Amino acid sequence: MVHDDKIIAGSAKHPIVVLDKGQHYKYGTAGFRMKADLLEGVTYRVGLLASLRSRKLNSQAIGVMITASHNPAIDNGVKIVDPQGDMLEQEWERYATQLVNAPSDAELAKVYNTLATDLRIDISAPAKVVYGRDTRPSGHTLVTALASALEATETEAADFKILTTPQLHYLVRATNSEGTPLAYGEVSEAGYYNKLSEAFVRCMKGKKIEGPLIVDCANGVGGPKLNEFLKYIPQEKLPFEVKVVNDDILRPEVLNLDSGADFVKTKQRAPPHPKPQPGVRCCSFDGDADRLIYYWIDPEVGFVMLDGDRISSLAASFIGDLVESAGLKEELRIGVVQTAYANGASTNYIRHHLKLPVICTPTGVKHLHHVAQGFDIGVYFEANGHGTVLFSPDAVTAFKKTDPQSPAQKDALDTLAALSDLINQTVGDALSDMLMVEVILAHKAWSLRDWSMTYSDLPNRLVRVEVNNKDVFRTTDAERRLSHPEGCQAEIDSEVKKFKDARSFARASGTENAMRVYAEAASRSEANELADRVAGIVSRWGV
Ligand SMILES: CC(=O)N[C@H]1[C@@H](OP(=O)(O)O)O[C@H](CO)[C@@H](O)[C@@H]1O
Ligand SMILES: [Mg+2]
Question: Any note on cofactor binding (predicted)?
């Protein structure tokens, strides 16, 4: 077939590491992610798939991002981005897995051709792939393998070099919408900064934000990109004082080390460096800048964290009020999407205080994103700080076309329009989300303490349980209950009943070879006790 010889020759230059018997590569929640030295051949093959996907979708540009997010520097990963900047369609995860597991170069060409035939893809049609990578040293080799696959399949390639993950998602959407009425922004990294900085200034309306903001960038790609972004706002218009810390990208060994959003969320404490200053507003990005967590050290109670659930409820409350002031409450449906890991107190607050609908989906951003698209304004966040707010085309039109009857209504409509430009519409984006939070705090004149007073989190605990066979566990009801093994859920239920305001669930991790158990209850000791008991049940059933 058309590309066979070139595909085979390229694959020989970027060989796949054949895994031990019984093991295979799997396109999971975060694409392929593992030790970087296993990834050269994988990345080559992902390049082949991206070219097929572009050809399948009328030559629209497909994205490929090379990153391992919050993992240590020796790891890396590769994932595909669909034309609108969202995650690869689920059906295609299977094709990625098939292509990557082809046992030889010749077999690889065969699988490629079979996919093309089965999916009715014209492999002589034009194809385009845009790609980027984070700061990991291994990224360089992987990009070379990717470029080689694009060359072998005669795919037009746009290398955007070092980027945050959400910047790559932005560029994919900008590329595909260029020159259309829905143009998303200039197709360049500068275009991303222009769009965000301009929208940020419009949202702030001359307001200033009290006190400095310390931004921990996990020594990842977010550091240099945030520093670059700040240059786009004229000094006199800069509404806040930002101090960027942990932005050393020259020493790979410090990437994600004792810093970053994942560290803060899982360890429930501030990064030790720089030494946290009581009372100062802080936030952390993760290694590829698609997660955000806020926190501060309260002089009285110590560390206080404002995670994805908090950002979600803050955004829903602010946007809900604006929609009301804009006179669009009857017209636009606002909803919040969470996973089972969302703190029960946040769900309660959104449902009963903000009076907004909440939908629970399985873990993984693609699920949340998809459900959020069903609302005119869909707010979604995972508790770990990954999320965004999606505005439908109808909502954006309403912000721009509604004729305001009062200055207050005009003000609300303008702020909503500016927010829809500020908030990344493709994926969770730490930089964009941070600017959104700063806008909301400035408008409400809130400190982090004011924000944290909106509701009290239920004490909770997340534990990881290693079992022999996690495949025996199957979930239902958006992962909140186990359907298999039969009888296991009944045991969990009977434990949960013994505690006040309690909830607990167990599910197999999609990214690690382990089970995760979550428990929350009225007190810390009860949450801990319940988590231990449920972990015990899971261990017994998982042998
Ligand atoms: C409890 C938890 O934090 N789970 C994380 C983790 O998924 P698991 O399937 O639980 O391993 O990694 C996912 C990808 O980064 C992220 O979407 C998700 O929130
Ligand atoms: Mg990440």
Answer: Binds 1 Mg(2+) ion per subunit.
- Residue nearest to ligand 1 atom 9, measured at CA: 510
Q: What's the chain's average pLDDT?
A: 96
Q: Is 456 a catalytic residue?
A: no
Q: What is the domain partition of the chain in residue ranges?
A: 4-162, 191-305, 308-452, 460-541
Q: How far apart are CA 234 and CA 241, in angstroms?
A: 13
Please, what sign has the CA dihedral across residues 86, 92, 98, 99? negative
pLDDT value at residue 22: 85
Q: Exactly one of 11, 51, 54, 69 is catalytic; which is it?
A: 69
User: Please, is 494 exposed, middle or buried when counting C-beta atoms within 10 Å of its C-beta (0-12, 13-18, 19+)?
Assistant: exposed
Name the residues around ion ligand 2, CB cutoff 5 A. Answer: 69, 286, 288, 290
Ligand 1 centre to CA of 507 (Å) is: 11
Query: CATH for 191-305?
Result: 3.40.120.10
What tokens does 292 get?
A: 């955000």
60 contact partners, CB below 8 Å, separation of at least 6: 54, 83, 128, 176
Residue 358's DSSP bridge partners are 336
CA of 511 to the centre of ligand 1 (A): 7
